[in-house]
């Protein structure tokens, strides 16, 4: 079979191990591979290169994606969609393996369900917000970067007797904020799943200070519900607002200082989350879902996504996986309350 592989959406560590996993397994199955460049844009523009063992052999420890990425949505423009369908036909692809989050895999789901394109999905996102899979690769590395940041901020916050707010990515799901906040021992965590209560946060900071603690740390998800006007915001081709422009960390630090009189600073992890070598967990998960994707192609189980369920990697329905965002559930939100002492 001739199989095209692409990576779309925000890159994250684990994509290269996943590409390698697809190719390594596919070699055993007799597949020929083509690397589609820069996500769905590569199929709009017919931009691909052959992909073989020596191309992927060395990439297991590398962040980013050797295939490049973009946030191209071919369903935005009928000419782009026609080009994708034509190019798949003329390149004689028997299957497309798409590595991506809800947007990239949403395109794979629609191409399969509406146009019969044989697609298989590999779930990736540092946001960990894809349904039907317990974890996505990229999350462990990205949250680890956030954890390193809060550990460093603790030193300087303590020295200067300050409050420091760390803004982390994660879009409309608070997974990164929850993990970094819990593992980093934050005094307060704000995330998109909960209404923002600045009064309660400041009252807590006052009580923390009153009991003698000399510094405090807040972890704030970029998707925190701060009062903001998004009506003029620029959106990407999938309709997403760029949340980093809302300056959640800066807003919270200034409110805290105003309301409590406690000197406050903020720091933003931003795209630093997405770089660097994938962790052990992300390398192994990337490899396993990549290998499973090759198996799904071999079994002609199209319209499926390779997913981690418990400790097993299984095929799940790609439409289902991309139709609802997986956010932090109530029981985990409840645990945050017990850490506010
Ligand atoms: O979806 C991954 C992510 O890093 C989000 O956490 C963040 O909101 C977004 O991508 C940033 O996108 P871009 O790289 O286009 O600025």
What is the topological layout?
Elements: E1 2-7, H1 15-28, E2 32-36, H2 41-44, E3 48-51, H3 53-56, H4 78-90, E4 95-100, H5 102-115, E5 119-123, H6 139-160, E6 163-168, H7 175-183, E7 188-190, H8 198-210, E8 216-221, H9 248-260, E9 264-268, H10 280-298, E10 304-309, E11 312-317, H11 318-323, H12 330-338
Parallel strand pairs: 1-2, 1-4, 4-5, 5-10, 6-8, 6-9, 7-8
Antiparallel strand pairs: 2-3, 10-11
Bound molecules: 6-O-phosphono-beta-D-fructofuranose.
Short characterization:
This protein has 341 residues and is an alpha/beta fold. It contains twelve helices and eleven strands. It folds into two domains: 2-137 and 278-321, Rossmann fold (3-Layer(aba) Sandwich), CATH 3.40.50; 141-275, 3-Layer(aba) Sandwich (Rossmann fold), CATH 3.40.50.
Characteristics of this structure?
Rossmann fold; four-stranded parallel sheet; binds 6-O-phosphono-beta-D-fructofuranose; 341 residues
């Amino acid at each position: 079979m001739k199989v095209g592989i692409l990576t779309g959406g925000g890159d994250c560590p684990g994509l290269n191990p996943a590409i390698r996993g697809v190719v390594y397994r596919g070699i055993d199955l007799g597949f020929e591979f083509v690397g589609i460049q820069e996500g769905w844009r590569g199929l709009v523009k017919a931009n691909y290169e052959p992909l073989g063992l020596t191309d992927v052999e060395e990439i297991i420890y590398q962040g980013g994606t050797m295939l490049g990425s973009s946030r191209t949505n071919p369903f935005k423009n009928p000419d782009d969609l026609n080009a994708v369908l034509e190019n798949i036909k003329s390149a004689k692809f028997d299957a497309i393996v798409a590595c991506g989050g809800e947007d990239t895999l949403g395109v794979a789901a629609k191409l399969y369900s509406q146009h019969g394109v044989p697609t298989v999905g590999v779930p990736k996102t540092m946001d960990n917000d894809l349904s039907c899979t317990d974890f996505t690769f990229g999350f462990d590395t990205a949250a680890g970067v956030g954890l390193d940041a809060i550990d460093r901020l603790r030193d300087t916050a303590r020295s200067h007797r300050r409050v420091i707010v760390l803004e982390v990515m994660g879009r409309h799901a608070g997974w990164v904020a929850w993990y970094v906040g819990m593992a980093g021992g934050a005094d307060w965590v704000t995330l998109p799943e909960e209404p923002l209560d600045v009064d309660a946060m400041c009252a807590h900071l006052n009580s923390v200070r009153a009991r003698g603690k000399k510094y405090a740390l807040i972890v704030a998800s970029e998707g925190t519900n701060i009062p903001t006007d998004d009506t003029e915001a620029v959106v990407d081709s999938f309709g997403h607002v760029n949340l980093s422009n809302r300056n959640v960390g800066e807003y919270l630090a200034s409110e805290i200082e105003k309301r409590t009189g406690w000197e406050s600073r903020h720091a933003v992890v931003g795209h630093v989350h997405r770089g660097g070598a994938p962790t052990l967990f992300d390398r192994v998960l990337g490899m396993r879902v990549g290998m499973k994707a090759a198996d799904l192609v071999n079994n002609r189980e199209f319209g499926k996504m390779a997913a981690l369920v418990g400790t097993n990697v299984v095929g799940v329905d790609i439409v289902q996986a991309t139709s609802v965002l997986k956010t932090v559930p109530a029981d985990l939100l409840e645990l945050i309350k017990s850490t506010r002492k």
